[in-house]
Write a structure and sequence with these properties.
The structure holds three protein chains of three kinds. By secondary structure, chain A is mainly α. Chain A contains 16 helices and no strands. Chain A has a domain of 226 residues. Chain B has a six-stranded mixed β-sheet, sandwiched between helices. A four-stranded antiparallel β-sheet of chain B has the order 2-1-4-5, covered by helices on one side. By secondary structure, chain B is of the alpha/beta class. Classes of the chains: A mainly alpha, B alpha/beta, C mainly alpha.
Chain lengths: 336, 260, 302
């Protein structure tokens, strides 16, 4: 057999090298950062929206780690986003206004919640798992709703003040500091997630997504790996939530809502799941479209989002990046 | 006759079960199975449909928990261990129904077990490709199984026969001490079946192989000894010629043929 | 027997009866809506988050038929059920069917999409405000039994629920259709191999489930007000009934729905400061203890 295989082995090695070299940075990966930098200078009036886009991108990227990579379908990721948001808000209202340490604390709190709930939730599969993630988020929202003395109940937390960033940069009215702060945090988180998805651990997550049975049969501690991914993702979602609190100086119950869990799912799916950059496509597109369309017509906006979801499921399972892949492949075939 | 017996007869068997029993929904699928597989042995497990062959494999790997009985791997009692811990003790398996990482490339399908075996699969902050020798070992394995040309293709795009080869590649990547093959060649075209037989024959001498198979031709080519399982119990064990001549085995198979 | 204790006892008893009564009525509505979801999820293994849409559609249809077309209560109810069952059948045939073998995520996304579209459509057609419950005049009063007064409509609700439970119990327990459903829930492949037309079975049970949801939505409009966010707002409770009750069963969701109804009623009466927190905590505990629900037919498996 080796005699027949020998001439063939040389040809695919380029494709194999591509698989093995995926962790190396490519030029195209600078694109989101160029856009974000350009946006700062070109659209000074839209920096508040810009910060929110960066924050939702971070949130969607955290979801990608559990959903796209580890294959854990969750309907309650807002639980972690909301926890981070509330922790940051409560810290600031109780005198801890230094933003970066508060961000770290909020992330840690959400991460711990991820471990605690993951220990429960990740034992289930299928419908039960879906239900448990949903119920955890609903439970937290109900708790936030009822613990008015701590969370402000339906009024939310108002009058939050955040100390200047690094003791020097005030959170200004134009949102310049907020934007650059969010951008820096997103950049760090992206670097971290990128390292993770290209690490052996990240690869084993895709293995879990494809077949947990096989992963057990090759000796992987399935539950522990899932739990770790869930905790990291929860911490990142918590950091995103804390960023929202710090940049908008407000926390409301909607940060824990099912709507938010659904929205971030839609963003990620729109961009493409399990691709790291789906969040970078989906979140901005969704947020910009919402900003432009939803203000005029919130009813129809919801309808179009619904229709879009149905169309994605039937015609574009990989989201926008999946479509781009297909187009590139078709072009490649035509050229070849 | 027993060329593949270990040099030291005092050594513990690669795999041993005693009184292994299990019922599912009140139906016994294993009824006190006593089984011994020596280091380096090539054994076939045969029996009519529903005899409990796959269940026996699942009991050994830990995918099923026995109601009673014990399991030893290399002399160590693994009865209470979960499947992943048994893999670390040297149990490797293939599945009767392809259980692969369908969306991943063939190469990635073997890199995952290689990383697990090397104990690096939990590392979060280092590029997987940075590990010296990992990709080379994966590549060498694919070449050995004639899969190198498909290395970059997603497994789900491969024809069935080649997917069966990936099943075996994943199990071999673990360098198991006991390799359990659940109908590795069922439904496989002859070209791939040939590779499968060659691969099994070419495995290192210290690996014990248990192969569940219906194709008697393949069984006779691969196995030196055969265990016949009927209704969750060992009916008889012996060399291929002994089994072929055994009237009870004939009765079981002829009875089945007459019934169906 | 001090008179003061007596009145306190009587007040407590009254409260308990009132909680139980309201809770059972609420539970019956949840049951009517969710039982179809349980059967279809059990049959097809389809994660259907859009089931509430059919209940909502039933509610809107009944309201519209009564208020605008001037139909009497029972004909309007019957017609709503038929319309929604037909709608369900149509959607099953054209869309759901194509995702039976797809992954969980695709099913979730598709059905969330349906919910969004339904919410927007309802708001567009009927406006954002809740619709008045279609309760006929002769069911509005009180019913006096054993010296206590019960709202007539709630009593009617409980009775209707009981009739449907009995109907389903007999229907699925005694008929060929029911036997086929049970066989398919247990083992789809086996059912197909013994010649059950699972495709037709899916469509029929989906239509039945949609029709029952419509009935629940229309009858229960008094308790779960019909407004555009209905399908989204009550989704969690419908799913809790199914998950806690166990997939593919008739009696499991009944127990879960009654439990949920009575608990919710007791919580809102005795501990309103906790809201639904207890319900979520209890759901969490039950699903941890029994991941396949209290009456799940699918075994834990290896």
């Amino acid at each position: 057999m080796s005699a027949e295989a020998a001439p063939l082995t040389a040809a695919p090695s380029a494709a194999v090298a591509a698989i093995l070299g995926r962790h190396r940075l490519r030029a195209v990966e600078a694109l989101p950062w160029l856009c974000a930098g350009l946006g700062f200078f070109a659209l000074p009036d839209y920096l508040a929206l810009g910060s929110q886009i960066l924050i939702m991108t971070l949130f969607a990227m955290s979801l990608d780690l559990v959903l796209g990579y580890a294959g854990i379908v969750t309907l309650g990721h807002a639980a972690f986003f909301g926890t981070g948001a509330y922790v940051a808000g409560i810290l600031a209202l109780h005198g801890w206004s230094e933003p970066i340490s508060a961000l770290a604390i909020a992330g840690a709190a959400a991460g711990l919640l991820g471990v605690a709930t993951g220990l429960i939730v990740l034992r289930a599969r299928g419908l039960a798992l879906l239900m448990l993630t949903l119920v955890v988020a609903e439970m937290l929202q109900e708790a936030a709703n009822k613990l008015g003395w701590l969370t402000g109940g339906t009024d939310g937390l108002q009058g939050i003040t955040i100390a200047p960033l690094l003791g020097r940069f005030d959170f200004d009215l134009f949102g310049r500091t907020a934007y650059l702060y969010s951008l820096a945090v997103l950049l760090l988180a992206w670097w971290l997630v990128r390292r993770i998805v290209h690490s052996p651990f990240g690869h084993s997550l895709t293995g879990l997504r494809e077949s947990a049975i096989r992963m057990r049969a090759i000796g992987a501690p399935v539950f522990r790996r899932r739990l770790r991914a869930y905790a990291v993702s929860a911490a990142l979602a918590g950091i995103a939530g804390a960023l929202l609190t710090q940049t908008t100086q407000f926390v409301g119950l909607q940060v824990l809502s099912f709507e938010l869990s659904g929205t971030v799912l839609v963003m990620l799916v729109l961009g493409g799941i399990g691709r790291l950059y789906g969040a970078f496509i989906g979140a901005p597109l969704y947020m910009i479209a919402q900003d432009q369309l939803a203000k005029q017509d919130p009813v129809n906006w919801l309808f179009w989002i619904g229709l879009l979801l149905v169309l994605i499921v039937f015609f574009a399972r990989g989201g926008i990046l999946g479509l781009v892949d297909r187009i590139l492949m078709a072009m490649g075939r035509r050229c070849a | 006759m027993r060329l593949d017996m270990p040099a030291s007869p005092a050594a513990a068997p690669a795999l041993e079960t005693r009184g292994l029993a299990k019922s599912l929904g009140g139906i016994p699928i294993a009824r006190g199975i006593d089984f011994r597989l020596e280091t380096g042995e090539r054994r076939a497990l045969i029996g009519p449909n529903g005899a409990g062959k796959t269940s026996f494999i699942n009991l050994v790997t830990g995918h099923l928990a026995p109601s009673s009985g014990r399991i030893w791997v290399g002399g160590e009692d693994v009865t209470a261990l979960p499947p992943e811990a048994r893999v670390k003790r040297g149990i490797g398996r293939t599945f009767q129904i392809n259980t692969l990482f369908a969306a991943l490339s063939v190469l990635e399908n073997v890199l995952l077990p290689l990383s697990e075996r090397r104990g690096i699969a939990g590392r979060m902050f280092r590029a997987a490709a940075a590990d010296a020798g990992l990709a080379e070992e994966g590549w060498a394995l694919l070449e050995r199984l004639g899969l190198a040309e498909d290395a970059a293709r997603p497994v789900r795009e491969l024809p069935y026969g080649r997917q069966r080869l990936v099943e075996i590649a994943i199990a071999i990547a673990l360098r198991p001490k006991v390799l359990l093959l659940d109908e590795p060649a069922a439904g496989v075209p002859s070209a791939e079946a040939g590779i499968i037989i060659e691969t099994i024959a070419g495995l290192p001498r210290d690996i014990a192989v248990l192969i569940v198979e219906h194709d008697m031709d393949l069984v006779f080519r691969v196995a030196r000894r055969i265990t016949v399982l009927v209704q969750g119990a060992v009916l008889v064990e012996g060399t291929p010629s002994e089994i072929a001549a055994d009237p009870r085995v004939r009765a079981v198979y002829l009875g089945e043929a007459a019934a169906s | 027997m001090v008179p003061a204790t007596d009145t306190a006892m009587d007040a407590a008893l009254s409260a308990a009866i009132s909680i139980a009564f309201h809770g059972v009525a609420y539970g019956m509505v949840l049951y009517l809506i969710s039982v179809g979801l349980s059967v279809t999820m059990g049959l097809m293994g389809f994660v259907n988050l859009a089931h509430g849409v059919f209940a909502m559609a039933g509610g809107y249809a009944a309201v519209t038929l009564m208020a605008r077309a001037g139909l009497p209560f029972f004909p309007a109810l019957a017609l709503s059920v038929v319309i929604v069952a037909a709608l369900g059948m149509m959607i099953e045939r054209t869309l759901y069917r194509r995702l039976y073998d797809a992954g969980e995520l695709d099913q979730v996304l598709f059905t969330i999409g349906l919910v969004f579209m339904a919410v927007a459509a309802a708001k567009f057609i009927w406006g954002p405000q809740p619709q008045p419950a279609p309760v006929p005049e002769y069911l509005r009063g009180q019913l006096v039994m054993g010296g206590r007064a019960f709202p007539a409509y709630r009593s009617f609700l409980i009775l209707s629920g009981a009739v449907v439970v009995a109907g389903l119990w007999l229907g699925l327990g005694r008929t060929r259709f029911g036997a086929q459903i049970r066989a398919t829930v247990d083992n789809r492949r086996m059912a197909q191999s013994i010649g059950i037309n699972t495709s037709l079975l899916f469509t029929c049970s989906f239509a039945l489930g949609s029709g029952l949801a419509a009935l629940g939505g229309a009858l229960g409009a008094d308790i779960l007000a019909i407004d555009p966010t209905y399908a989204q707002e009550h989704l969690v409770f419908f799913l809790i009934v199914v998950a806690v009750g166990g997939l593919g069963s008739i009696i499991g969701p009944l127990a879960a729905a009654l439990l949920l109804g009575v608990t919710a009623s007791a919580c809102s009466y005795l501990a309103p400061q906790f809201g639904a927190f207890f319900i979520y905590a209890a759901t969490l505990a039950i699903l941890l203890w029994r991941p396949h629900g209290l009456f799940g037919r699918k075994g834990a498996g290896p």
